[in-house]
Amino acid sequence: MAYKPTVCTASMKCPAVVVIQDWNGMNDYEKERTRMLAGLGYVGFAADIYGYGTPVEDMSDWMAASSAHRGNPDLYMSKISAAIDKVKTYDFVDTSKIAVIGYCFGGTGVVNMAILGMDILGVVGYHSGIQPNARVVRGNSTVPVVAKVLLHSGVMDDAATDMALLEQELESAQATYEIDRYGSGVYHSFTEWSAAFPGQAMYDQRADVRSWESTKLFLAELFSGLPAASRGPEHDTVTTGLHNYTCNTTTCEGYMAYNASACTASMKCPAVVVIQDWNGMNDYEKERARMLAGLGYVGFAADIYGYGTPVEDMSDWMAASSAHRGNPDLYMSKISAAIDKVKTYDFVDTSKIAVIGYCFGGTGVVNMAILGMDILGVVGYHSGIQPNARVVRGNSTVPVVAKVLLHSGVMDDAATDMALLEQELESAQATYEIDRYGSGVYHSFTEWSAAFPGQAMYDQRADVRSWESTKLFLTELFSGLPAAAREPECDDDHDHDNQANSTQTSDAFYLAFPSLASLAALAVMAA
């Protein structure tokens, strides 16, 4: 256990997070993760699932111990429940605020917890074993999924077909969940700092950083509630205006928002170009541009259709969007024109430009990436990623230069279409992430006024989490990837490790297992 005794007391109780070990036992890795949780103001508790004295010396031991629990979900869940019950005995723990995180074998455990309906606020799984033969399958069960679920998955670790099956089960249970997929070349054990088995189990700094930040936001939601969605009303500190520019053979009218006192010729700011959804550049994109200005960027809402294009009703939207979707060269020329316009302003750092797109605009940014446009990064929200709506990479050898972040409603984008896009991005060795939101998250989930049940619906949670993810992504693009969080032992943290060892019972939770020299063998983890 790790916690800050000056923060967590009987009179100031703290939330607790139970960490479920990976398959080689509870050791230094899980202990450090608990200290990281303590650094966030929680009580971190690394559970020992196997029990005192269980051999964990080599791979045959790990396979035997993990298989004994994977093959007996009742046993496994009883061990997790015992750890939770132990945590609840401490008077400095807020027993109404407990979550569980699992790694590898532990990730399978938290998936099982959710599917079996265990009463817990939320679970987080990292590089979890989610194959149907490794976990509990929901089948025809009507047990409600109580826990909110967050899963972090390497695209080269979990098969798209297995992920699609899990999505179906969570949708049928009407669970609140998110699955974040990291690529390219992100394999098993991507958060384990010493994992170094090429092609099977490899540490990945970027996936580690982004998954941890996502988890921090998730825990804050569990323990403090979902924050209000960000908005960008007009404000005196933000300079706004319409700007005409030539796009292809017509005139386009973009909308710019920035802080004129912060973004100057001597203090240039990064810029983010916003590509409209299918009903034209209007108040929605303008507000998103102002939100970007509030983050210290120059926000520029591009007009793709061009001045005077009819956008009065759905027939107009279909005509204008189809004319561009069906002509990628035209579409890309319009996006390039907007980027070129932004680069003309002396307060813009022309080396730091990203592009965000919504709906039709999301299709545009996917096309940008696949076609190899030279831009730092792109973000797509509820993008049209069906093969008949976007550019398909096929046998192209053009490199994908832009980093890619896509936010997708599970009820919007088909799993098969997403799997195809993953294959294309993997073949291009792109740096990308795809975040899937459920259940019941449809198209237009970030559009505040969307209210078409079963087709296009605003979803506050998906809006909040996707925006926070985007903010972190933009920081990475413009300032670089931060170092991964670590937490060495610290005098400020209270550690019950030795105390627990002294009990030497079969259900001891804090065992000092020997540190393993290498995690390479994790790659051949038993299914």
UniProtKB/TrEMBL annotation:
Residues 11-221, 265-476 form the Dienelactone hydrolase domain. InterPro entries: AB_hydrolase_fold, Dienelactn_hydro, FrsA_esterase. One of its GO terms (molecular function) is hydrolase activity. This is Dienelactone hydrolase domain-containing protein. It comes from Symbiodinium natans.
